[in-house]
Amino acid sequence: MYNSCRNRHCPTCQSLEQNKWLERRRDSILPVPYFYLVFTLPSELRPIVAMNRERMFALMFEAASKTVLILSRDEKRLGGTPALTMVLHTWTRDLAFHPHVHAIVSAGALSPEGAWVASRTGYLFPVKVMARLFRRLFREALLTARDKGELKVAAEHDASLRRALFETHWHVYAKAPFGGAEQVFRYLGRYTHRVGISNARILSMDGRFVTFATKDGRTCTLPGVEFLRRLLLHVLPRGFHKIRHYGLCSSHHVATDTLGKVRAMLQPAVQGATPRPIAPVVEAAQESNSAETWPECLLALTGVDVRRCPRCEHGRMLPAPLEVVNIPARQDSS
Fold it and tell me: Residue 19 is inside which H or E element, if any?
């Protein structure tokens, strides 16, 4: 049945979860512009990441979040704590392994005195400064983890590891603020619940080769085994959280209602109103704030009505208990 497996790597089961996530995020969006950043590791580190997926992914989150928070808290810049959400992404359009982290950062920060400090129009931090700080923080964390025996690094990768950590110039992509706060998270929603490839991109399968669309009208044809190998590169470790929140979006500030107070402060027109309770910023399964039931939501998103009878296509599916079947005990032949 459509949308039945609920696996987070299934290409047909994520639209409903994505909509639920966006509904929950509406309670945490501040009425300010947001910046979009991308932190990418050099290609020399990809074999090491593939061998130490969970630990290296965690180091990416740690270094990228610290980069934003350190620069934001610098008194010469914003001098405060921003709202920050990050999402791990691991693939290219041809399913190659390309780990990077997408980040949505508020265009301003909350100072220790409780005032909101807005960033300059169209500018957050210099990308070269972010890249150098990201490299230093990641290098320190990686070398510490290796010295503790937490990472597996093959001998043939030692030279490329040193080159990537000390000689290669790293890059951080930064995009100007979006048109609106809610638009930011709708854009990020493309990555939160997207998998390596959707069914719509698979053009043909002949038993030996798989052809799928990539970008700008181009296609890629791979042997079936290679296609599966690439697809499995992007299956996350069990229990790993690919969406993480920091700064004002962290669980601490949500639990203490700091985020709600900042939102009320930035919206003077609603200060006299009773603030809405803020949902905890965790990626646990929960019902949407919308009044729609999940079948109605799925119908609006995909056009698939799971309540319609698949045989007659007119009647409605009704819940009913399963029929109890008595299976006779096996009698061993003498």
Answer: helix 15-25
Closest among 184, 192, 137, 145 to 21, alpha carbons compared: 192
Closest among 56, 32, 48, 68 to 172, alpha carbons compared: 68
Q: Taking all residues of the chain, what is their mean pLDDT, rounded to a whole number?
A: 81
CA geometry: angle 275, 277, 283, nearest 5 deg: 140
- Rounded to an integer, what distance in angstroms lies between the CA atom of residue 256 and that of residue 258? 5
With a cut of 80, say whether residue 75 has pLDDT above it.
Answer: yes
Q: Which residue in 164, 128, 122, 124 sits closest to 143, CA to CA?
A: 164
Question: Mind listing the pLDDT tens digit for each residue in 207-233?
Answer: 899 999 998 899 999 999 999 999 999
Q: What are phi and psi of 124, to 5 degrees?
A: -115, -80
Q: Which of the 8 DSSP states describes residue 305?
A: -
Question: How far is residue 232's CA from residue 235's CA, in Å, rounded to a whole number?
Answer: 5
Task: Transcribe 183-245 into DSSP letters.
Answer: HHHHHHHHHHS--S--GGGEEEE-SSEEEEE-STT-EEEEEHHHHHHHHHTTPPPTT--SEEE
What angle in degrees, to the nearest 10, is found between the helix axes of 15-25 and 181-192? 150
- Give pLDDT tens digits for 163-197: 999 999 999 999 876 666 667 667 766 666 677 88
Query: How confident is the model at residue 286, as a pLDDT?
Result: 37
**Residue 7 in tokens:** 């696996």
d(CA 5, CA 24): 22
Q: Exposure string (b/e) for 120-142, b if CB count within 10 Å is 16 or more? A: eeeebbeeeebbebbbebbbebb
Contacts for 252 with CB less than 8 Å, ≥ 6 apart: none
Residue 14 pairs in a beta bridge with none
Give DSSP secondary structure letters for 129-140. HHHHHHHHHHHH
